[in-house]
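FW: tagging you since you asked about this chain on Friday. Here's the raw sequence from the shared folder, copied in full. Didn't touch anything.
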Amino acid sequence: IGVFGEWSTPINDTWTYEVGGRYTQVNAEAGTVDGTPAMMMPPAQSLRDEFNAADRKLDWGLVDAVGKLFYRVSDTLRLDLGLGHKERAPVYQELYLWLPLQATAGLADGKNYVGNVNLQQEKANVIDLGLDWRSGASFFGPRVFYKRVDDYIQGDRKSTRLNSSH
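HL: got it, structure written out here
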């Protein structure tokens, strides 16, 4: 469930700004698991028991925000500055894969993963600086940006457990 809002307006003949925000509530829950491998092999049994003992009802309140400032240098050239913040909750594969099988639903890197119900949401901040040049049907818009991601969710090569790195 989410809500989104955006506002854009000119300040004067040369300056315009735009702001926007989104709040998203994400809820995830998984029941207990079992399977033939866990009934026959102690390592799979251990993974099953660890998963079933964990708190599998999870909630995140995600906030996205953007602010942009546009400066019209001339009729054909505009300078843009943007700041943004984006959050992402882990998806079900990253949380709830309890047995390392190839059913990774899209990770497609040839590795087998085990989920991690202790993952935090990713948080990304970005600064964007660009130019927009337009003349007739021609357009050129180079951009330079800096992006920092905290609590990035990525599979760990050593354990093939999905981790949130700091």
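FW: Helices lie at 36-40, 42-53, 92-96.
HL: agreed, and The mean pLDDT is 88.
FW: great, closing this out.
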